[in-house]
Amino acid sequence: MGKEEVTAVKKRRKLNTSTSNDGTKPVPVDVYKRVVEFEEAEAHLRPADKDAAFFNKTCQDIRQLFKEIAELKTKETLEAKEKINAKRVEASLLLVALKKLNRLEKVRTRAGRDALHKEKQRVDSTHLLLQNLLYEADHLNKEVTKCLQFKSKDEEIDLVPLEEFYKNAPPDIIRSEVTKADEHQLQLARLEWELRQRRELSEACNELISSKERVAAAIAAARSRLDALAPHLKDVLKSTKPLQECLALRLDEKRDEARAASLLPASLFLLFKNANAYSDILGSKVISVGVCGDEDEARRHDQNNVENDIISSNESDSDQENNDEDQQTKKKRHHRTKNVSKEDKAEAKIKRVFKKHPLNVQVSVKAEDGTALNLILSYLINLKIIVVKFTVSLPKPVTGVSAADVLNGHSILNELYPGDTGDDSPHPATSYLLKNAGISESFSYFIPEIGRPYVWAQRMCGIDFMTSELNEQSVRRAVEPCPNLSVATVENFIMTLKKRLKCRVKLMHELQDLESGKISPPKGSLPPSMRLAGSLTQWQSVGWPEYSQAPSTAFLVTEGLVSANDLLYRAIITRQSAKLVALVALRSDYPKSVPIFSLTLHWNGTHHAGINDDIRDIERVVNTEIGLEERKHCTLSTQITKLLACLDILLETSDSPEFPPDKVILHPVRGRNRSKPYKFVNQGVGVFVHH
Amino acid sequence: MLNKMLYNTVLSQTLSPCGKYLVAGNIYGDLAVFDLDRILNPVLELLSVEYNKPKHIHSIDSKKQICSLVSTEKFLIIGTVNEICGWDWKAVVSVKLSKPVWSIKIPSQTFLDYNDVNCMWLSQDSEKLYAGCGDNNVYVFNLEDGSLISTYKGHNNFIHSIHGKNQQIISAGEDGLVMLWDTRSGKSHNKLEPHTNNKVSRPDIGKWIGSAALGDDWIVCGGGPRLSLWHLRSLDAVTVFDIPDNGIHVSFFHDDCVFAGGTSKHFYQMSYSGEVRVELPVSATTIYSAVLRTKYSTLLSLAGSSPEIDLCTSLNYKDQVLHFR
């Protein structure tokens, strides 16, 4: 059978060769194909194992044949040769079979490889599909999370709270059967309700805006009408002027004043307002108020005010720098620069620091007899204090020299309130500001020029430094005027000043009398029959140096009972050869505080309280034993009368023939201290007794 | 009006028996009690500006000046006007003064309605109190029951000073008389009139005698007339002290020295021969009272017409000034 196959193959080969030979013809392609198909089918049909066994057997046979051939060759017989030929053919046939087998195997292998390849491709495509699916799944997952994280715009809307929604919304929106169960529906319902409400509100808003516009238009119209009215009013005012003049009304002036007042600094305005109120109540005969100064300047100042406030705090610092620079350049060019320019600069600086507000308030307080005190209160812009200057106007000239002093000069306002001498600025920051501005002199140095910063003046203007002093941190902070303080102080001040003025006028008359040697004792203190032998021969004012250097005043000065601010006088009382010199110190608040006498007697030597007890006793009587009743009247005259009586007693009890006893004295000397009877008892003709 | 205390005048002083307190009385009827312990031995930590002020000021009677002060073991005896009263020391040094323990009224014997008890002297046994008064008399009281033992009459004007020693009493008056009294008989047995002695008299100041004191053999007295030393038996002016004064108000013997003060800038200590040993400057215009303590430690206190009282712990210089105001 094998043989047949080999032959078949042989035939095919022949065919093949033939076909290959005439490959140019179109038919042979099909032939080759057919062969291939046949071979493939054959290879497919034949089991591979059998072919393998067949191959093995064929190989065995061939080997057997080769062996037999080899044996036969050894024999080298003819027979053998034949046999060898036979055998060679046989072997060749077997080789053909082998060839066939090999070919089959090749086809089979190719078929297997093709199948494997096919399978591989299938697996690959499947795998690709898997990859695609996985990717898609991943993408979908991402999309899902994105969706989950999505925030709807409606969440940002500030919705009406739930309870309110259920309470107020109409039922067709609420649809409680749906919304109670479904939260989404609830949200939708709430959104809808919100939308509806907002729409309503927006409508209302629009309505209001339009009505506002209407009103604004109405106002504008009214304003334009009012503006048109102003010229008319001015005309009317102009036309009333003759009538005002006719009726002596001060309407215009008052209006001018009010306008000027509105330009005043806040503190002075307070004062003006309050003082004006008092002048309305008490009448302009007692107190009158006015505003003076350059209004235009004030207006300009008012406009710059805000800016100035800011600048001023820096200004002082830069001043300091400038000052330093000045000094440095000065040193460098000392030989060239003249002193004059520097002085000018310093003056300008001083002027700037002590700059006054262009407007000031004039308060004039009048006493009953027509004596008036005109106060000019100005505001120092940079130092933020009030300073006072004043003039006195008298109804008739004062004759006495010392009497005139009482109503002139600083003493009239000195210590109007205890301790308020007006010698230094009450503002704690002043010295700092001066130093900062490079001014070496203290504030009191400038007082003659700018006026005195009395504490009462600050308080009248509502400035209280006492409270600001407590808080040291805020020293540089502007002190705000306090209206209540001003009200309280103005009333008090007017009354105090009136009283002071009254006292001064009275004192002035008293001094006038004393200067002409006339003593007018209050009625009833001495009986008319009593004759005081001593007489006042001199009364004049003395200076502090003379007063303080007199031996008799030593203890008053060391005790601090008399100061240079007091009014000081020298009285000389004479009686024959005896001369009594009395140095009198009047406090500013006379007659509230009793004048202090210190005595020196020139008679048989010089005697004063430091070396003579009799003089000391007289001083005690005169200085400390003034009854309340006596103080109501002219204290000074009472004291001088007393002094005259005491002098008489002293001289008349001295057993000197020059002074015969004239007064009724019960007992001239009493006690170990040998005191004299200085106490007067108004009985009968009047008796002098001991204390 | 000035405070009248600026013109304060202290007329008398005395020390408490324990030596701790100095009491001074002034013309306004105030009694100042000074705590000497605090003033002389100040505790530095407790030292204040007030340390030299009185511990208490008691007002006895503002209408009556306190003329004289004497202290016994138990009582502070105050001589004012028309009255002598005794106060318990305990009450005096306490914050608030109560009522006096006892008092003796002395009505005036003259036409005047006041009778100052200008000076008082206590006998050595503290039984009898001698009071020199404004009605020209010296009264002797028994301190046991306050009864009047006798009245010495003889002066023609008020009595300035009284002192005693060895059964004798010496009194000096405004009339210029210095009288010596025998305590046993109650009679005056001698008298001096210094103003009649032209070595001593000073007519421009007056004839009054402000102070007289007895020593064993000597009398010292002065006033308007100069301070002078007289022999007790012969009654001759032995020494006339030449010191610049305008009236003597205080004089006494101590330790062979004469102590004297008055209207002068100094308080003097002099030997019997007239030599000035020590002169102490004083604050007061006139010294009206000087108290000397020798018990415990030496202490001299000088007061007069001034709110200041000078305190000397040594007799040689002034070292403290107290303020009675």
UniProtKB/TrEMBL annotation, chain A:
It is found in: Nucleus. Keywords: Nucleus. The keyword Lyase does not apply. Residues 316-326 have a biased composition (Acidic residues). Signal peptide: none annotated. Residues 330-339 have a biased composition (Basic residues). GO terms for cellular component: THO complex part of transcription export complex. GO terms for molecular function: mRNA binding. Pfam families: FmiP_Thoc5 (PF09766). Residues 1-26, 298-347 are annotated as: Disordered. GO terms for biological process: mRNA export from nucleus. Its main location: nucleus. InterPro entries: THO_Thoc5. PANTHER family: FMS INTERACTING PROTEIN, THO COMPLEX SUBUNIT 5 HOMOLOG. Belongs to the THOC5 family. This is THO complex subunit 5 homolog. The lineage of its organism: Eukaryota, Metazoa, Ecdysozoa, Arthropoda, Hexapoda.
UniProtKB/TrEMBL annotation, chain B:
PROSITE patterns: WD_REPEATS_1, WD_REPEATS_2. InterPro entries: Quinoprotein_ADH-like_sf (IPR011047), THOC6 (IPR042626), WD40/YVTN_repeat-like_dom_sf (IPR015943), WD40_repeat_CS (IPR019775), WD40_rpt (IPR001680). GO terms for biological process: mRNA export from nucleus. It comes from the Eukaryota. GO terms for cellular component: THO complex; transcription export complex. SUPFAM superfamilies: Quinoprotein alcohol dehydrogenase-like. Keywords: Repeat, WD repeat. WD repeats lie at residues 152-191. Belongs to the WD repeat THOC6 family. This is THO complex subunit 6. It comes from Bombyx mori.
